[in-house]
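In line with agreed milestones, the collection of sequences with tokenised folds has grown. A representative record is reproduced below.
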Amino acid sequence: MAVDSRRELILKAVKDVLESLPAIRTVERTRPSFADLGNYADTQLPLIAVVGGLPKPDPKWSGRVHQTAGVIISDLSVELVCYAMDNVTPDSTISNLMDDIWTKVYSDPLLITDDYPDGLALRVEITPESQVGIWDPYVVFKLVCVYKYQHSMGGI
């Protein structure tokens, strides 16, 4: 069942942890178009779109031995696209939001724990996209989080 899949649990946990950030007003699982941004009130921004990819089995860890045990180790790419309003100091806004997101994602104990499998993932690696969009009055930036996680051969 997709609701109970490890992938879905990771995506829900990422959404929940981002919703706990005081600076973030809205977190959605879909990416709004530029035209859609006009439908959001100023009080709903900054907004983060959490968009999950499909798991990519890691060939190093998902070989015959692990498959015999019914275990697959996969990488799940999760895009975090942040939309904010700032036509005065957009670079400072990006720095502040990026710092908050970075810290929260790397420190969330539900997602990553030393006592795996009590956490949902083995580890996460965050890669910020170097391009930043500034369309007065909006600023947009993206981070790609790759979660390495374990799941069964019976689901993702």
Remarks:
- The two ends are 9 Å apart (CA to CA).
- The mean pLDDT is 87.
- Strands lie at 26-28, 47-52, 56-57, 71-85, 123-128, 133-135, 138-152.
